[in-house]
Predict the 3D structure of the following.
Amino acid sequence: MNQEKFFYDNKIPRAFAIACIFWGVVGMLLGVIAAFQLAFPILNFSDYFPYLAFGRLRPVHTNAVIFAFVGNGIFTGVYYAVPRLLKTPMWNKALSLIHFWGWQFIIVCAAVTLLLGFTTGKEYAELEWPIDILITLVWVVFGINLFGTIFTRRERHLYVAIWFFIASWVTVAMLHIVNSFEFPVSFMKSYSWYAGVQDALVQWWYGHNAVAFFLTTPYLGLMYYFLPKAADRPVYSYRLSIVHFWSLIFLYIWAGPHHLLYTALPDWAQSLGTAFSIMLILPSWGGMLNGLFTLRGAWDKVREDPVLKFFVVAVTCYGMSTFEGPMLSLKNVNAISHYSDWTIAHVHIGALGWNGFLTFGMMYWLIPKLFDTKLYSKKLASAHFWIGTLGIMLYAIPMYWSAFRSYFMMKAFTPEGQLQYKFIDIVQTVVPFYIIRAIGGTIFLIGVFIMVYNLIKTAKAGKFIASEEANAPALAKEYVAPANSIWHSLIERRPLLLLVLSLIMVGIGGLVELVPTFLIKSNIPTIASVKPYTPLELQGRDIYIREGCYNCHSQMIRPFRYEVARYGEYSKAGEFVYDHPFQWGSKRTGPDLARIGGKYNNVWHFNHMLSPSSMESATIMPSYPSLYENKIDKASTISKIHVMRKMGVPYPDGYEAIANQDLDKQANEIVADLVSTDKHIKISSDKEIIALIAYLQRVGRDIKLEEKNK
Amino acid sequence: MTVIILLLIVSILIAGGFLIAFLWSVNDGQFDDDISPAQRILFDNKKTNTK
């Protein structure tokens, strides 16, 4: 057979590796700062400027870790492993470079715009529409390059890792596009196309699958390549890896609603999400065991080799998270965990353990290979391993503890039937746990610095192989199945195949026909008293979104006695029909705000936003003095109302023209009320705080009006 | 909740795409051999330091 000579380009994986580590340090550092902010509000620096307050910083942390650290980690592995698995260089060097620089540009844009307060208000999809378009373009470039490489391969067989990469690419593309349907209001502001319950469902369908197809499947691809390579032995069962792949991708996509248990999402959708989540244990654990069993008979190597140590803990964390996840999807468990620190612990077992440790293991293996040398210090790598493991434990355990503690306090009633603890009591109890968690995160980060040092030393000691020579025979044109093929007998039953395919076609056709019918008759009970926001409230809501209030405050009261007693009537689906985007939140670091309207007077809100501790001395909420200086962006009112009406919010025709008059009128009323209640207050009616007060006083009130009217 | 229809269509399209990919891969003989692919990735041709 004719051997063809070709070269693997190592510059691209090296570039992605550097970016991965760099953004990893940045993202984790921001996480550590955010963690300390929850214990020491002064670290928000919000008395000086609004850019670093928790509500803005936390999205930068999550986006940086997911899309910058893990994203670049994925691309490092893909651009290294795919050419080697397919025995061909990446299809197009220019596309590789566009992909690399495009992705870094997106990350910088994301960090800057999020800190400036440009956000869609949807978790893990906060980036505004111009960046969403950029992401789509770069993702397409990546796809063309990936599939181009696959089509020009010299190895007919697609190793299982490739399958994981393909599925990740396709599904992330779909998730990103569907969840990012948004109507631009201006250059850096848009409203989600969907509202309320619908928006929540799409968002968590996206959110869950971002975990599945960005944090999990591509990393499983990396596991199936780098773990066997590092252990120098084949994966335990190739057949199991195939079963793992196909079953995982078919199940994952349906699990999203488990993020919305006990919310206003219809019950059947919740149950559907739970059922699929439980089923997910099987493929996930199949994959975990496949990874661990690969090391059977090689555990002596694990004792020696830091790379394998990292991989073992990474795969174990994958197993723990994928057991914990389905458990958290059970409604009775979710009742405890939802909105609590348990969720935070859960995702960090995944992010620090699975993604973090797999990345570290990969880097310790890859960098010496790229630089044709040995790792500078195994001892330092082992130290990193132990420090990192300690960091994860110090992170997770206090979070579990805090979750249960706050749950029991939250639901405690006195014998007289009153809530035993105020929310602030619970906050005070968990702050020490937040401090330990922040220390755990710091320790984890110290480990990363050790790695950076070790890898730089390694790179300096070696000589970078920019392009690596390889050779392989060209791909034979025709495939001839071996005689003893098992699978082939299956596929040869053509009628079955035909049946399955036609069922799918019929199913899709039927659904397409049903859409118009369903779109007209929504199954959300509408509530007559629920009205669109006034222009001032709408502006206030946008400030609420901009400051990232949803990062700590939910707006969704679940139907439990201890929630209804604390916050008020439980939330109904029909209350959110004009909420573009929904703001249900996923974490209660502060109390729920679904019924905040009318709970306190305007002056309370005025003082509270300026200095939260003046109203509640133990609070950990940052202050928002800039709202008392910034003017409401009245110029945007017209386009905001216009866009809202286009999406079906029933503002009267021509309301745009008089919207700002209504805004001024309501603002003046609020100022008049503030001044008459407290003579010391001096504020003009065009300041942002007035709009925010208007919004907060409106939240959750429409349904109270209905009760009054009865 | 009308949006569930959109999600269903999109999800089923994706799942259908994967099903076709699966059937293709079986037909293409991707899974005929479930022993040697696992071994093969371990044998990269060595770097050019043989000179």
